[in-house]
Write a structure and sequence with these properties.
Helices cover 32% and strands 21% of the residues. With 584 residues, it is an alpha+beta fold. The relative contact order is 0.13. The C terminus is likely disordered.
Length: 584
């Protein structure tokens, strides 16, 4: 297929590491018990790994160890595995001294010892026709796994590398690369955000080569129902064309592009860029499970929930209470969520990938259905009873006022339960001489199904997008080339986005009247998808750099690696100005 393509381009781009910048570092409090066990309070996203680690180190059965997590001050994937050694060290010290031991890492130690997002280098060839329709892609992703071959360098990339584009012939290979760095770990949208960025770089190269409008080339290649993704998913309910069309009308893209063009004609040292980026994020449920229980107290009818998910700011407990109140028909203030504990929630999977909230809510709905079925005979004995009256009667009838459920989901495809669709526009203003810029406006339209809580979902979308800005623009690492030691281990050298990095105008909207037929109460989860869309701002900056280079008669394609820091942007602008006489 590549041999038949009228045009072929090739290139190399990279997407660097990123640190899980959780404000609360790794910590564990270990307290020996009088039975030779250990009670642990841990800042972990996966309690089972902590139990297994401590059990192996101390040589005691896992049944003697309990782990409790009330909530996390941020996780972003960094506390799935890397909290386990902290628990292990603290537990060993507690075991030897027979005293409680608290271990709380400082920021520098946390950044030095913890692995980062997998660093990818993408090499590609793209074949396409005169209009920009892609015929074939041959691409390789080199994944920096660190010192151990842990994730094989492939963090679900096959499910995301084609993003929203129908590529009829696609050969994708992942090559793991071992380096003398800590073992890479999951960071919000692991592998997926870099993969989507890699695909966007490829189609960006095509549009630049043909000197065609970038949005039109993307629209020409968009997926539709019936298309098959690289991962073998036959698409149903594909909304990407609807999302892009609605966003085009909503923000008047043609007028915005013309305004940017006029500004660039009238300004030599300041340039604006405008870009539109569509996005698809496949959600996977299979292999994720969280033990969930509901208990009703007979005295006042209040309810408490115990589930295997970990609240780390994503609002899982709020949505859990909402679903329980909705299904039981009781006020939310009657319901409490207890801290996650292995005493009642053992054998739960890690809380990650934006799947936990949906599956915990699903389990709660199932528990409520079980309870309501058991309460029905007691309710039938009463006339128009209140919830409290039903519970008191059920207690007298010796009804078990507990319910338990663990989801065991079998996805139709191994790499997808459903897809979430979105599109984003970004406009920036760039100082050509310094490389500094401002994000003047971002407009984001997202398919969230029927949102269970729009305020939480908008917060998740905005937060994920800003984390994407860090990945693609500001968070650059430096390592010692001989030892692999991290040289940028604090905020003096490592720069996550702060207040002045935010868009001046940030407009977020959800698609309306598009319930998800395979989601919980028609919903979709939004925590991971927006991270990749942070690349939209990188490409808007690239448009501004292209405008500056064009005035030096340079319209050639150039790689724009992530993160596109101020220094690299300045270099891209000024390379063509080396012989410019500023006195003139």
């Amino acid at each position: 297929a590549m041999a038949t393509a009228p045009h072929v381009v090739s290139g190399t781009v990279r997407c660097n590491d990123q640190y899980n910048f959780h404000l609360e570092n790794q910590a564990a409090l270990c307290i020996p018990t009088d039975t030779g066990g250990m009670d642990i309070m841990a800042t972990t996203q996966w309690q089972d790994t902590c139990i297994e680690t401590v059990s192996q180190i101390l040589g005691i059965p896992e049944s003697r160890i309990s782990v409790e997590t009330q909530r996390l001050g941020g996780g972003f994937g960094g506390k799935i595995y890397y909290n386990a050694p902290v628990c292990g060290m603290a537990a060993l010290a507690a075991y030897v001294t027979n005293r409680p031991v608290l271990m709380n890492l400082d920021l520098h130690t946390n950044m030095q010892s913890q692995g980062k997002r997998t660093h990818y280098v993408f090499e590609y060839q793209v074949g396409f026709d005169d209009d920009g329709r892609i015929i074939a892609i041959v691409a390789t992703g080199y994944g920096d796994v660190g010192a151990l071959l842990f994730n094989k360098g492939d963090e679900y990339t096959v499910g995301y590398i084609d993003n929203v584009y129908n590529i009829p012939n696609f050969k994708w290979t992942v090559q793991p690369v071992k380096t003398n760095k800590p073992v890479s770990t999951a960071v919000r949208a692991p592998g997926t955000a870099p993969a989507i960025y890699g695909m966007e770089c490829m189609i960006d190269h095509v549009a630049t080569y043909l000197k065609k409008d970038h949005l039109q080339v993307r629209k020409l290649n968009l997926m539709q129902d019936g298309d098959t993704t690289l991962a073998g998913v036959v698409l149903e309910h594909c909304l990407i064309k609807d999302v892009v069309a609605q966003l085009e009308a909503q923000v008047n893209i043609a007028q915005r592009l013309q305004a940017v063009s006029d500004f660039n004609k009238n300004n030599r040292w300041r340039k604006r860029g405008f870009h539109v980026m569509p996005n698809r994020y496949a959600m996977v449920w299979e292999g994720r499970f969280y033990t969930t229980s509901i208990y009703v107290n007979h005295g006042d009818g209040s309810v408490h929930i115990c589930h295997g998910g970990v609240d780390m700011g994503q609002g899982i407990n709020t949505k859990a209470i909402q679903c329980c109140a909705y299904k039981l028909g009781i006020p939310m203030d009657l319901i409490t969520v207890k801290p996650t504990s292995t005493i009642v929630n053992t054998n739960s999977k890690y809380s990650a990938g934006s799947t936990t909230t949906g599956l915990v809510c699903l389990a709660i709905l199932k528990c409520c259905e079980d309870l309501l079925e058991r309460l029905a005979p007691s309710k039938a004995k009463l006339v128009n009873p209140s919830w409290r009256e039903i519970i008191k009667q059920a207690y007298l009838d010796v009804v078990d006022l507990r319910a338990h459920y663990m989801p065991q989901i079998k996805d139709k495809y191994p790499s997808e339960h459903y897809s979430s669709w979105g599109a984003c526009t970004a406009e920036v203003e760039l100082d050509v001489l310094t490389g500094q810029y401002q994000i003047t406006q971002v407009d984001y339209l997202n398919d969230t199904g029927t949102s269970l809580n729009p305020q939480l979902d908008i917060g998740q979308l905005e937060g994920g997008f800003i984390m994407g800005l860090g990945l693609f623009l500001t968070e650059g690492f430096k390592f010692d080339p001989m030892t692999g030691q991290l040289l940028t281990d604090g905020t003096w050298e490592y720069k996550p986005p702060l207040g002045k990095d935010l868009p001046i105008n940030f407009n977020v909207k959800f698609m309306r009247n598009v319930p998800n037929p395979t989601g919980v109460l028609g919903s979709k989860i939004v925590g991971e998808a927006p991270v990749s869309t942070g690349a939209c701002v990188l490409f808007a900056l690239k448009r501004a750099v292209e405008a500056a280079r064009a005035e030096q008669n340079n319209t050639d394609w150039f790689p724009f690696h992530a993160p596109a820091t101020v220094e690299s942007i300045q270099t891209a602008c000024l390379n063509d100005l080396a012989q410019y006489t500023f006195g003139n």
